[in-house]
Structures are given as C-alpha cells and as structure tokens.
Amino acid sequence: MSEMNTATHVPVLEVSDLDIEIRGVNGAFAVVSDMNFSVRAGETLCIVGESGCGKSMTALSLLRLLPEAATIAGGKVVIEGQDFLAMDQRQVEDFRGEKIAMIFQEPLTALNPVLRIGEQIAESVRQHRKCSRREADARAVDVLRLVQMPDPERRASQFPHELSGGMRQRAMIALALACDPKIIIADEPTTALDVTIQAQILGLISDLQKRLGTAQILITHDLGVVSEVADRVIVMYAGRKVEEASIYDLFDRPFHPYTIGLMGAVPGAGASSEAGDRLADIPGTVPPLWNLPKGCAFAPRCANASARCLEERPPFEEKRPGHWAACWEHDDAA
Amino acid sequence: MTMRLPKAFTNVSLVVGALISLTILLLAIFAPYVATHGIEQMDMRNRFDGPTMEHILGTDNFGRDLWSRLVFGARISLTIAVIAVTVSAAIGTVVGLVAGYFGGWVDQVLMRITDIFLGFPAIVLALAIVAVLGPGIMNVALAIIVVAWTEYARVVRSTTLVLREQNYVQAAKALGASPVRIIFKEILPNALGPIIVLASLGLGTAIISESALSFLGFGLPPPAPTWGWTLAYGTRFMRDAPWLSIVSGATIMVTVLGFNLLGDGLRDVLDPRQLSRGGGKSAKAK
Question: H or E element: which one contains A22?
C-alpha cells in the first residue's frame, strides 16, 4: 500500500556521503562512513545493525544532536530540499520538531519528570506555532487522543511517573507528532517495553504513519520489528551500509553474508527454525572502529571470505534490481 | 514540587525546624500585637530589671522592654534575610544554570568570577560595603548578597551539569527547544530541590551575617532594635544584667538553628526522591 504512496513522492530526506567522526585520545576515527539514503513521505526505512554499528549516530546526526566528541566530517543532509547541515542554530531549532522529530528509546527518561504530560506537549507546540496557551493545551489533548491515549484530558494533567510504560511511550509519540513533522526518527522505540505492548506501539506507529503520510526512519536491532513495519531496510556493519533492499527482497533473498548471519540468529527465522536446533551465531566479534581491517570489515568473520575480501573493500553496488550490497561475492554465491 | 506529606511529617528536623521558623516568622509579623511595650519606651525606674511580670525578659539600661525589642528585631533580621536570600538565590541560580548548561569558556568565565567573590573574606567585604554605602536595610542585604550568591551558583552549576545530560533535555532539543527554554523549562524545575534546601539554610546564614554586622556596629543604627546590637551593648552590662546578651544571643542561635534544621529536613525529604527519579546518568544504550 505504501509503495503506491511512495512512488508519487520526492524524497523528504536525503542523506548523501555522510561521514561521522569521533575524536578520541588516539586521534579521530570514523564511526559512520559513506552513508547514503533517502526517505519519501509515507515510507518506513529501517536501519538495522548490532550495537556500535553507527545506527544511533546516524539517527542523531539527522537532528544535529551528536554528542560533543562526535562531528559530522562530511556529506549532506537535505530535508525538504534544504541543506540542514548548513543552517544556523536558529533555523535548526525551527526545523527540529516541525520538520523532523524523534521518538526516543526510553520514554521514562525522555519525558521530563517534573512537568505534566500536557504541558510538555504544549510547550513544544508553542515553540513552533504562534498560538495561545489554551490552543496549545487543546492541541496536546488532541495528539494524545490521536495516539489512542485512554482518557486524554486526564492524562494530560498527569506526570510521567503516573503513567504505565506503554502510556509513556504513547505520550512520547504524541510529543513527537505535536507539530506534524514530515520525518520521524524512532530510535529503538519498543526496546524498553514488554512484548504485548511492543506490538501495540508498533501497530500504532505504522498506523499513524500511513494516516499522516510521515516519512519514518526506524532504528532497531530487532529483525522481528523490521519485518513488521519496514518498507525498505538498510543493514549496517561497522559504520557502513552493507546491504539495502526492500523488505521482501531482504527477507526472501538476503545477499550479504552478515545479513544472512543475522537472520540465522533470530529464533524461528532462517536456518534454525527447527525446534530443538541450536541458534546459529556469527563467529568472532565486531572489529574496533579505530582499527578496522583493510578490506571488508566483515571479512574476518565471514565463512566465504577470499583473499581479495581481506585486501580490498568491496564497493556498494546494485546486485539485483533494487537490491544493493557491499560484497565481492556474486549473486549466485549468495 | 509535590512532597509526600506523611513522610515529611516523620522527619524530626523538618518538623522542629519548621515549627521554630514559623514561630519566629509569626512573632515578626504580629510584632505590634505580641510586644508588650514600645521599642523606644523607656522606663527609668526599672532599668536593668530581670525578668518580671511587667517585663517578661527584663529591661536594658534605658529601661526598654527586651521582649518587645526582640520581636521587633525579628522583623529587621527576617526582612534582611529574606531579601538577601531571594536576590542571591536568583542571581546564583541564573549564573549556575548558564555556566552549567553552556560549559566551555562561558562556564570558565562565570565560575572564575564566582571564585573572585568567594575569595574575599565575607565579613570584611560586607563591612566595606556598609561603610561605603552607609547603613540601611537594603545596604546590609546587599552586603550579604555579594557573597551569598556564589554558593547558589556553584551548587546549581553542578546540578545543571548532571541534568543537561538527561534524556529529556536531549528530547527537548530534538523538538526544537531553544537553550533559554531548555534552561528554564526543562532544567530549572528539576534543580529546584537543592535550591530550596540552600535557601532555607541561607536564611540562617543571612541572619548570622546581619547580626554580626549589627554586633560590629555596621547594621541598622540604634535605636533600631537589632539582635546583633542588643547582644553587643549587652556585653557592657554583663555583670549587672547578663540576660541582655544571653537572651538576644540565644534568640539568634535558636532562629538560625530553626532554619538550619528546616534546611536539613528539606534535604532529607527532597533528595531521596531525586535519586529515585530515574535521574542519575542513564547510559544511552545503543
């Protein structure tokens, strides 16, 4: 359904050649390199990868909220045709919340403990819209209703600690939606929730997104989440994209050995779906980012690695129509 | 700042401190009603009277009623203390928030200025200010403020350093909040606990400072019934009328003790909640 949607839209967000560096004691090293992607209205792009692969850094850079040690070393982030990285502080503040908003991982810590829910939402509305306090309060109740918060009027006057985990995440989503942003970034939005609530929240997010036509970038390490909501998926490893494809292509015919390994490691999916089988794992560990191998970063852990893999970094190229990967292997081998 | 009342009532320092502070405050407010004599009303036949039915705390060398002078003195002490604490808390809080939030050279400059004010011996600086500007409620308050704001600045700065790393501050930034909004809407409400504690302790300190200035003759000039001056000239008659110094000294002590107990109690009641607030540095899992 969203495919039809997306085909008619130009990208609302375009990221090109993004490089992010961290200055450490031993000099700077890249945590994200050569990131390229775009998202269209109504589309959900999932970025998957394990801890430290740079997916959260990528997300934060889209809001220019990187931690102090990290800087954007190069590349472009274009939001609705405007170069976000070239803007001054005031323009950036105008764009945040209004064009691009973020749903954080832990709703308890991402909501201010001493402010009422409604107040926090109204505060953000008043930051971006010229409107009276009363209109902002009314808008707060409206968005709480939009995220199916039970009894929104009463919840608006409560503090975060008075809400359950699921309701807090709903409040967090309401906060992000308050100013009708064009792009929503959700960084592991369901990790802190238990499984039944996770399903509800995911359902809510994708429902709202289809309804409002928001572009969404979902950061996660959970392939189950990906399979439920994504239109397109980017798999990251050690700061680089290793594979990008539509959700169907990726799950049906994963190309990169790392992606194949990830899927094998999910219970009930991939190779080990037989009951009683041991879960497959990927041998070895992620190399440290300040000391990456010369060739393919995954080569040391890859069963199919050849001499070339250890020497030369594979280009990120289209292996099949609409299906990109960075691997020296050819289609038939995967 | 909602406090759970039942828990607050079980805190002995808080309850005792609040009772003492409240009593002094009420005596000051209703001084004209609780005073038995005018503060300048002399009774030459009963000079240096010990406590009697007519003069419950005795009289001084002019036969003025000590009790009446003390309750009116409470007005002076509390007025000065409240002004001093309000202004110094306001200045110190803003300086601390700005220094802590922005960090870097802003922090360096503001904190070095704070250090300069801290470097002066407080009482000497206060004496100099009153000596230059002359006595008067505002000038005495100013003399106290000049040093007192530094403590708020330092405490609020360190609180801000922790609070600015909180996820909700990051979330507010992600929603486009400007630094001013983040400082006053997100951080300040969370920093109020320590400020309130400091302020109630600060009332005690301010009363001591005011009394010290008056004791040295740099407070409000006689015949103003300041506690400090009553204590000071009472020492001249220590042999004949020891109650003058003892009672006024005890008044100062009990008042300061009251505010300190109040502050300690508030700290106990406010702090644990702050720890359990999901505060602390929650490492952002990736």
Answer: strand A11-24
